[in-house]
Design goal:
InterPro entries: Alcohol_O-acetyltransferase, Atf2/Sli1-like, CAT-like_dom_sf
Structural class: alpha+beta
Oligomer: single chain
Organism: Linnemannia gamsii
Protein name: Alcohol acetyltransferase
CATH superfamily of the largest domain: Nonribosomal peptide synthetase, condensation domain
Helix content: 25-40%
Strand content: 15-25%
Distance between the termini: 51 Å
CATH architecture of the largest domain: 2-Layer Sandwich
Number of domains: 2
Length: 508
């Protein structure tokens, strides 16, 4: 039976689909760790799969009816004009996965497993998302993850959906109405239209200058000339290749509430943002772990002259405004690239942060260029599989086969709950992670804040450098540098000061 047409994919959605088709990028995970405070006689953890499905079916059913993106699949997934199709029903028992870990720190393993489970974009049997429940045995908390294909939502959409899911779980827990068991097979509503894609909401036509520059560099110039003209940057110890498995490795780092507040207060004192502070700390940590050598009693530490390139996905929701609330499901992002970032021994942490800050302000206050990057996608090859072939060719065209040294995606503050309300499901902290992208950056940082706790995960392709311990050390040094640089009594922090503590390879 042919499924009803919903609408064509927009360019940003098509780009995400092409990455998935080529297995260059798998999925996004946004979630929260919750602690349950059950009422007398209620079922608590551990639950079996059927009990979790029963608990989640009511809230998920209401969200499926509210958000059409949750009930679509892809038609003609490899064509130049793929479309969204309407599913007739969704069996929730097939898309809720339940597992457990001994301790919170073991969540890295679950995330790595999840990032290997790509969504079959040719299938019309299941939607482009699933729910993952991870019970934590040490404190009887649990993670609630929304794992999804980037085609149907950006990071902010994922955070908004988790906020609504937790809210409805709490409403359900306090309802005085008799609990009837809803069907696990949901018949989606067709009343609400699927939100428009980005190009419908704003003019995404690239400027002539941007079009000529990108068309020449990406489509017409031979690879060796393109690489010779571009600024060099470090992007992993080994060049990207499609011959190695796209295996994501993950390290999660949480600050305490006191440490999170320290970073926030430093941002306020410097009249900057937490995001650019995270960028500066990641620049120092990357240079320290991968491109420097510590000194000794007779010699100063040394660092290479390698420049770096950083990218920051930017949500366009607050720029566009209505109708894009934080809860609208869809993909409304662009990206800012910071090129030729150099860190020397005497480089100031706050000078690096200020550079990032100026660029972010300049590009978000005049967003025509951000929209134009979406418009450029219109000029990719139109034949079947053309977008996938183009993205795979980036392995040859980009420096070391990757677009950047490191990317930071920051969802900001979410999952807010009133502190004085007696809630059954209380948010402890957030989770945000995404699979590595072979041709994007050698490392990806994902940040989110909930309940006053900042989370940062680092993901990378296993084949990009030697040893998991390097990735763990990178995150450990990132955290140390972040907290040292933002100490209230410290006026400045130079890169040479990052060597004052001997790096350790112990896991987080």
């Amino acid at each position: 039976m042919a499924l009803p047409l919903v609408r064509k994919l927009g360019n940003t959605e098509r780009y995400s689909l092409a990455r998935a088709n080529a297995l260059i990028y798998m999925n996004v995970v946004v979630g929260a760790r919750l602690h349950e405070q059950p009422s007398s006689g209620a079922t608590t953890q551990p639950r079996n799969h059927s009990q979790w499905v029963q608990l989640l079916t009511g809230p998920l059913t209401s969200l499926i009816q509210e958000h059409p993106n949750l009930s679509v699949v892809i038609g003609d997934h490899l064509s130049a004009t793929p479309v969204f199709l309407q599913m007739p029903s969704i069996d929730l028992s097939r898309i809720i996965r339940v597992t457990s870990v001994e301790r919170r720190v073991n969540i890295n393993t679950v995330l790595e497993e999840e990032h290997q489970l790509h969504f079959d974009t040719a299938s019309t049997e299941v939607p482009l998302w699933r729910i993952v429940v991870v019970e934590v045995k040490e404190d009887r908390s649990f993670f609630l993850f929304y794992s999804y294909q980037h085609t149907i939502g950006d990071g902010r959409a994922g955070l908004g959906l988790i906020e609504q899911l937790v809210e409805r779980l709490n409403i359900q827990a306090t309802s005085d109405k008799p609990q009837t068991l809803p069907s696990v097979v949901v018949i989606p509503s067709t009343v609400r239209p699927m939100p428009d894609n980005l190009e419908v909401l704003v003019d995404c036509s690239p400027s002539i200058g941007l079009l000529v520059k990108e068309a020449v560099m990406s489509l017409f110039l031979p690879v060796f000339i393109k690489r010779a003209l571009e600024k060099k940057y470090w992007s992993g110890e080994f060049d990207a290749t499609l011959k190695e498995p796209n295996e994501t490795q993950v390290v999660a780092m949480y600050l305490t509430k006191e440490e999170t507040d320290q970073v926030v207060q430093a941002a306020k004192a410097r009249k900057t943002t937490v995001h650019v502070i995270l960028l500066a700390a990641s620049a120092f940590a990357t240079k320290l772990v991968f491109l420097s050598k510590p000194g000794d009693n007779q010699h100063e530490p040394t660092t290479t002259k390698d420049p770096m390139k950083f990218t920051s996905p930017v949500t366009l929701r607050p720029i566009i405004g209505a109708p894009l609330t934080p809860y609208v499901q869809g993909n409304y992002t662009s990206e800012i690239a910071s090129k030729n970032v150099k860190v020397k021994l005497e480089t100031s942490f706050w000078d690096v942060a200020q550079r990032f800050r100026k660029q972010l302000v300049a590009e978000t206050t005049k967003p025509k260029g951000l929209y134009g990057h979406t418009g450029l996608l219109e000029y990719l090859p139109k034949e079947t599989g053309g977008w996938e072939k183009f993205l795979c060719s980036q392995v040859e065209k980009e420096q070391h086969g990757r677009e950047a040294t490191l990317q930071i995606s920051n969802l900001g503050i979410g999952l807010k709950q009133p502190a004085d309300s007696p809630l059954t499901f209380r948010v402890q902290d957030a989770m945000f992670s995404q699979s590595c992208s072979v041709t994007a950056s050698s490392l990806t940082f994902n940040a989110a804040t909930a309940n006053g706790v900042l989370l940062v995960t680092s993901t990378w392709q296993k084949a990009s450098f030697t040893g998991r311990d390097r990735g763990e050390l990178h995150m450990k040094e990132f955290k140390r540098i972040l907290l040292e640089a933002t100490q209230p009594e410290r006026n400045d922090y130079q890169f040479r000061e990052a060597f004052s503590t001997t790096p350790t390879t112990k896991a987080l």
